[in-house]
């Protein structure tokens, strides 16, 4: 991260929050908004949706929340699908999710905005797995087999469909069984399914604990994007808007720390998630990401994924990604 970028994030976190006249008109009797229009963040509670404790352990390890001026409440989910359901209902204010589930939520009419992006630097933890000793050696060998892409609309679902297309197949050529991660893991172990398309930490755990092997990872099939999504009502609330902006700045600093301290990040993740050191190390290595705004490049790549998902029949309506982005948090 450049010095100017780091300085910008530090300034963003430290600076008093100034609100637009429109926000001031909307705030009404909000006790977190002072008479001069500034926000008293000590009276704000921000609820953050996370998956399997990965992001919570990251920011805790990085130490970026030591002086956080608002109340921070974490809600943990096994996968993006239930997290995004909580987000669309307002049970959480912001949440972390990959590109495919974000698109699935938007396609179902969720009232949310994409407010920040991250990009994987190295190989992704998204992969199609087969059990040890499986006769399946190529994606084409999945024809007629039973595969769990984890949950509908997930990054695992997108990876499977894209990998099948690459191999000259489609979703109709395999038997798809949607299973929550814990059930999919058990099904792969017992060989009730032939393959599992999923993401870290489940990929790493299956590799280390079950001896599962990667049939096809996401390289060349995905841009490695994930997002912080925000509930529209939270963005419209001046106090929570200010807290979200502050949280994003801190989170991006945490990503910088993780890239510089992979061993420490893995250790803390293992402690929080109760994963063994080998699993935690794999997850930390593959979760090294760079954070930033949802710029034109990101919008273009996400539009490509949305168009693919529409062709796959997962998205029933066309999405124009630029309409679902809020760049005002940077």
Question: How would you describe this structure to a colleague?
Answer:
With 330 residues, the protein is an alpha/beta fold. 44% of the residues lie in helices and 17% in strands. The protein folds into two domains: 3-120 and 224-324, 3-Layer(aba) Sandwich (D-Maltodextrin-Binding Protein, domain 2), CATH 3.40.190; 127-217, 3-Layer(aba) Sandwich (D-Maltodextrin-Binding Protein, domain 2), CATH 3.40.190.10. The strands form two sheets. The chain has a six-stranded mixed beta sheet, sandwiched between helices. The chain has a five-stranded mixed beta sheet with strand order 7-6-8-5-9, sandwiched between helices. Helix 6 links the parallel strand 6 (146-148) and strand 7 (175-176). Helix 1 runs antiparallel to helix 10, helix 3 crosses helix 10 (238-260) and helix 3 (54-62) packs across helix 11 (262-273).
In short:
Residues 1-27 have low confidence and may be disordered. This protein has helices at 3-14, 21-27, 54-62, 80-89, 99-107, 155-166, 181-190, 202-210, 232-236, 238-260, 262-273, 277-286, 296-312, and strands spanning 45-51, 71-77, 94-98, 112-120, 127-130, 146-148, 175-176, 195-198, 213-217, 225-231, 289-292. With 330 residues, it is α/β, with parallel strands linked by helices.
Describe the sheet with the most strands: 6 strands, mixed
**Alpha plus pi helix count:** 13
What's the average pLDDT?
90
**Quick one: CATH superfamily of the largest domain?**
Periplasmic binding protein-like II
β-strand percent reads: 15-25%
Order of helices and strands: HHEHEHEHEEEHEHEHEEHHHHEH
CATH class of the largest domain: Alpha Beta
How much helical structure, as a percent, in the residues? 40-55%
Rg of Cα set: 20 Å
């Amino acid at each position: 991260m450049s010095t100017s970028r780091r300085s910008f994030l530090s300034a963003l976190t430290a600076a008093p929050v100034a609100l637009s006249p429109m926000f001031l008109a909307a705030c009404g009797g909000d006790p977190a908004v002072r008479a001069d229009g500034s926000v008293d963040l000590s009276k704000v509670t921000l609820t953050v949706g996370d998956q399997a404790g990965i992001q919570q352990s990251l920011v805790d390890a990085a130490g970026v929340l030591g002086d956080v001026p608002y109340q921070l409440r974490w809600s943990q989910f096994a996968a993006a699908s239930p997290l995004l359901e909580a987000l669309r209902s307002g049970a959480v204010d912001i949440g972390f999710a990959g590109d495919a589930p974000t698109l699935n939520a938007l396609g179902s009419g969720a009232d949310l905005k994409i407010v920040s992006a991250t990009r994987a630097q190295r190989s992704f933890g998204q992969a199609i797995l087969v059990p040890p000793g499986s006769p399946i050696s190529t994606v084409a060998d999945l024809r007629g087999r039973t595969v769990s892409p984890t949950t509908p609309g997930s990054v695992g679902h997108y990876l499977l469909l894209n990998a099948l297309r690459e191999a000259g197949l489609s979703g109709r050529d395999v038997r798809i069984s949607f299973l929550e991660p814990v059930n999919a893991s058990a099904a792969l172990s017992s060989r009730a399914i032939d393959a599992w398309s999923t993401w870290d930490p489940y990929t790493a755990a299956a590799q280390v604990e079950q001896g599962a092997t990667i049939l096809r990872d996401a390289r060349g099939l995905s841009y490695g994007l994930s997002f912080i999504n925000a509930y529209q009502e939270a963005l419209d609330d001046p106090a929570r808007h200010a807290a979200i902006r502050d949280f994003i700045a801190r989170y991006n600093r945490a990503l910088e720390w993780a890239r510089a301290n992979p061993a420490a990040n893995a250790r803390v993740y293992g402690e929080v998630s109760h994963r063994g050191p080998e699993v935690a190390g794999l997850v930390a290595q593959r979760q090294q990401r760079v954070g930033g705004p949802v710029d034109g490049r990101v919008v273009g790549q996400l539009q490509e994924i949305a168009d693919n998902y529409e062709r796959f029949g997962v998205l029933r309506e066309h999405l124009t990604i630029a309409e679902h982005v809020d760049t005002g948090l940077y």
